[in-house]
Amino acid sequence: MTDTFAVFPSHGGVPRPRSVRPQGLPLTMPSFAPPTAVVLLFGEQGPVTPTQLLLQVLPFLLVGLAAWTLLYKPERERMKRQQDLLSGLKKNDRVLTSAGIYGTVANVDRESGRVTLKVDDAANVKIQVALSTIASVLDGSTESAASSG
What we know:
By secondary structure, this protein is an alpha+beta fold. The protein has helices spanning 36-42, 50-87, 140-148; strands at 5-7, 15-17, 94-97, 102-109, 114-120, 125-130, 134-138. Among the domains are: 50-87; 90-148, Roll (SH3 type barrels). It is 36% helix and 24% strand. A five-stranded antiparallel beta sheet has the order 6-5-4-3-7. A two-stranded antiparallel sheet has the order 1-2. The protein is elongated and about 105 Å long. The N and C termini lie far apart (90 Å).
């Protein structure tokens, strides 16, 4: 039993099994053939032809085109419409803010980016909001639907 166990001081004197290696085997690792994927990717191939290069790059190009078409382009169009809406904002426009506040534009200060809204005509209540919080300008049909709902 003393042949297969050794006492190591670093383990608190607890007996640990020794590594048992059959006699006569080499200490080096056997050489294995490389995995098939490595052989296919980096194996014995000739120079890459333009067609092969195009087929390798084409999926990345298609993903980039799809991302631009589905994400980037619609967002740019939405931002352009919002900029046009804010640049055309004038006094007495009925607006809806992104916080859900309906009001009439009393003053537009483009330098400071603020808009003064009149929210109650009877009590003459006015509030100042950031120009960027204007979500939409209400026209006659939208205004009547919003006030009835």
